[in-house]
Design goal:
The chain has 19 helices and 36 strands. By secondary structure, the chain is of the alpha/beta class. The N and C termini lie far apart (86 Å). 46% of the residues are buried.
């Protein structure tokens, strides 16, 4: 284990006028030969880590690099700045606890060269530090590590050297390595960091004994987890050990942590998460998982015959750990952060009831910076348009609910899939796009003290809700998947929201359990999965005037709809396109298309009664006619209202599926399916064709057309084309549809004007302002056909 010097030690060293061992002529020759820039190279960037007073940085600048020089000692940076030449910029940064990713060059692909001379042995977390530096390199970049070699120095200096085993360990994570001996030092050139998935390895066969132990998952004030390197077994592992006879698991965790790593904690600070049971080498292995955030001391090797060094690791980076991870440790890590590690050998987990131990949430500086950046982008785009929304997104750590994702991915304005269906490959659970979450939260009308129901788990959105309703409000989160529910419970506990969000395992189609429904109902219900209906229980559990925000599927198209309860019905307040994973359980629907013979095409009936498809395959084979509408859209221009208009106003509306690249009579669009109608034994499909292409501006002009097939194909095509023209003439950019959701069985006379979509639990009226405002009911009328009659 190398000696660790604090930033204060080094500051005092340089402030007293001391320097660092100067570059030798041999080192200069090796650097010049190996790292010189090709002639004519301009603007290549280099980073000198632990620069001291800047000698190596100045040497690199003289070789043509633009150099960032960084050290954790203020006095060193001051002295380096005073002696800097053109091409060198000096920075002070904590090399072990700072945000190394903040050094990434702006507007470039990364550093061509990163150097670390005679410094790596002084760092306690070498594996993590080197991995973080690797992310700063460009694709052809080199990490150059110069270190004294242990075999060439006296015993008392071994603490500032690396030996062959540690040098080989460092090189494991790189595709190309080159080792050059220079005087008493080793120059290691590393290129192409590996991103192979972490592997797992068992230890040698244990001696016959009771295989009961405790694995301790302990994190520091940057949210990093402690692992020790076991060289004899060639694995990383958690602090762990056997339970002594009569010893409580909490006491075992505290004892082993002190005996192995020199960290001190109180048994009362240990949270037990349950027991893992599996088998190894013919033995049954029982592992109790202990979670700990409250401790003192710095990791230090106490039992060198077992562990030669301790390091803090970023949890998400463990997915690409260069060396193997002990299987039992991997299983324990996945219990703390479900989904963190892929393909971990299974173990039966018996969870414990949630204890009273409060964990302290900590996170790296990079997470704070990236979260602030995400909020800034959301605010500039107008999504977090209130101080309350901005504060909520700033407060809740999204990465803590996506531990398997790199920080940059966790804070991107993108949806992140967390669960895939193994049979279909489709996503069944995801963290929604922050932009869409902001939209839906805004439509829910959340206020301090509100009682809110969320349908769909994950924990992040529920925590945002908790921030918006404050400590006097309540949040109930219902999730149907046991795995997602377990993730939600764990992440709420890790982040401190467990006492503000009540996570329930159940089918959200049925709403909340009766004992959790407020006396006057929920002030808002937010649904984070696509629903094909508005179940009556949701309306029954909603307070008068309360808001329901739901990704509602109508005619096969999903729209994020904000609704407000008025008596027995709901009226929309906003509507916009969206994409969500589908509802499971009782609210599940079948998207399997009905095949059209063996043509490769299929018909999906959404909210329209199915029509017989007999003979439609022969109709398609006979060919059809094309009709062009004269209605055009530019690339990037939205026409979601057209989709909803066609789906709700046309009799016989359906969606036609098939492979758009497969030759055939129907010209399917590249997007998912084509809007279509079936009229008797005839069919008409919507299509688009490019009319103009402005390469300079990257835009194109597309015209809507219709294909008609069958004896009544022309009439069907005319009907579909008339609907497109009616949208263009009367509705386009002029009107947002209003949805009125009423109970099934509501008589037509009690419905407003518009087109009715019949669901199992609801009758949904789609009304277009300016078109469906005539007095008296106009239910289910074929407005597209009326448009045709007017021509």
């Amino acid at each position: 284990m190398s000696t660790t010097h604090t930033a204060q030690n080094w500051h005092a060293h340089y402030e007293a006028g001391h320097d660092f061992r100067p570059l030798t002529d041999t080192e200069k020759a090796v650097l010049s030969e190996q790292l010189s820039l090709p002639e004519g190279t301009q603007g290549a960037r280099a980073l000198d880590v632990a620069c001291g007073t800047g000698e190596l940085a100045r040497f690199l600048a003289a070789a043509g690099y633009q150099v960032d020089a960084v050290d954790w000692a203020r006095s060193a940076v001051e002295r380096a700045s005073e002696s800097s030449t053109n091409g060198v910029v000096c920075h002070q940064l904590d090399l072990t606890g700072g945000d190394l990713s903040s050094l990434a060059p702006a507007g470039t692909g990364g550093y061509r060269l990163i150097t670390m001379r005679r410094a790596l042995a002084h760092l306690p977390d070498r594996t993590r530090t080197v991995a973080e530096l690797a992310t700063l390199l460009d694709e052809d970049g080199t990490l150059c590590v110069i270190t004294p070699h242990a075999d060439r120095h006296r015993e008392e200096l071994r603490g500032i050297c690396l030996d062959d085993a540690e040098i080989d360990l460092l090189a494991d994570g790189w595709q190309h390595t080159e080792r050059i001996e220079a005087d008493g030092s080793t120059v290691l050139l590393l290129r192409g960091p590996k991103t192979d998935p972490v592997t797992y390895s068992e230890k040698r066969t244990p001696k016959p004994a009771a295989m009961a132990g405790v694995a301790v998952v302990v994190t520091n004030d940057r949210g990093q987890v402690l692992l020790g390197w076991n060289p004899s077994r060639a694995v990383w592992e958690l602090p762990a050990g056997k339970v002594e006879p009569g010893e409580a698991f909490e006491a075992t965790a505290v004892r082993e942590l002190a005996e192995e790593a020199g960290l001190h904690a109180r048994p009362e600070a240990v949270l037990l998460l349950g027991t893992l049971c599996d088998s190894t080498h013919g033995f049954t292995r029982i592992t109790e998982i202990a979670r700990l955030t409250d401790h003192t001391g710095e990791p230090a090797v106490q039992e060198p015959e077992l562990i030669t060094r301790w390091e803090w690791h970023t949890p998400s980076a463990l997915r690409c750990l260069p060396q193997p991870l002990f299987t039992a440790s991997a299983q324990a890590l996945n219990t703390v952060w479900p989904g963190l590690l892929p393909d971990v050998p299974p173990a039966h987990h018996t969870p414990r009831p949630t204890g009273d131990v409060a964990l302290t949430f900590t996170e790296p500086a990079a997470a704070v910076r990236l979260r602030e950046q995400m909020v800034r982008h959301l605010t500039e785009a107008g999504w977090t348009d209130t101080p309350e929304l901005k504060r909520a997104f700033t407060a809740v750590p999204r990465h803590a609910f996506l531990p398997e994702q790199p920080l940059v991915r966790a804070y991107a304005n993108e949806a992140v899939v967390t669960v895939f269906d193994e049979d279909t490959g489709r996503s069944t659970s995801s963290a929604s796009q922050p932009e869409m979450q902001a939209i839906m939260l805004s439509r829910a009308g959340l206020r301090p003290g509100g009682n809110i129901l969320e349908i769909g788990g994950g924990g992040y959105n529920a925590s945002l809700i908790a921030e918006l309703v404050g400590p006097t409000g309540s949040v109930v989160c219902v999730e149907i998947s046991p795995y997602v529910h377990a993730r939600t419970v764990r992440f709420l506990a890790e982040t401190g929201y467990a006492d503000r969000v009540r996570a329930v395992l159940g089918d959200g189609t049925h709403g909340a359990p009766r004992h959790l429904i407020p006396e006057k109902g929920f002030d808002a219900i937010i649904v984070t999965v696509a629903s094909n209906d508005v179940p009556w229980r949701w309306t029954g559990q909603l307070a008068e005037g309360g808001h329901l925000v739901v990704p509602l599927r109508i005619g096969g198209f999903t729209r994020a709809v904000g609704l407000r309860k008025q008596g027995s019905g709901l009226v929309s307040t906003a509507i916009s396109p969206c994409g969500f994973v589908p509802m499971q359980g009782a609210g599940r629907w079948d998207e399997t298309p009905v095949p059209v013979g063996d043509t490769g095409y299929g018909i999906r009936w959404e909210d329209t009664p199915p029509a017989p498809l007999d003979g439609l395959d022969r109709t398609l084979a006979a060919g059809g006619a094309e009709l062009w509408t004269g209605v055009t859209v530019r690339s990037g221009e939205t026409f979601e209202d057209l989709q909803l208009w066609l789906a709700t106003s046309l009799s016989g509306f359906c969606r036609m599926d098939g492979d758009p690249d497969r030759p055939g009579p129907v010209r399917l669009p590249k997007r998912s399916g084509a809007e279509a109608i079936i009229l008797g034994r005839s069919l008409a499909c919507l299509l688009t064709e490019r009319r103009e292409n402005d390469e300079a501006n990257g835009t194109s002009l597309w015209e809507f057309g219709v294909q008609g097939f069958g004896p009544d194909g022309q009439a069907a095509a005319d009907t579909l084309a008339a609907a497109v023209r009616a949208w263009d003439r009367e509705l386009r950019d002029r009107a947002t549809p209003r949805l009125t959701v009423m109970p099934a069985g509501t008589p037509d006379s009690a419905l407003p004007s518009g087109d009715v979509v019949e669901k199992s639990d609801r009758r949904i009226v789609v009304s277009w302002p300016g078109r469906d405002e005539a007095p008296g009911p106009a239910v289910g009328r074929n407005t597209a056909q009326e448009g045709l009659d007017e021509q």
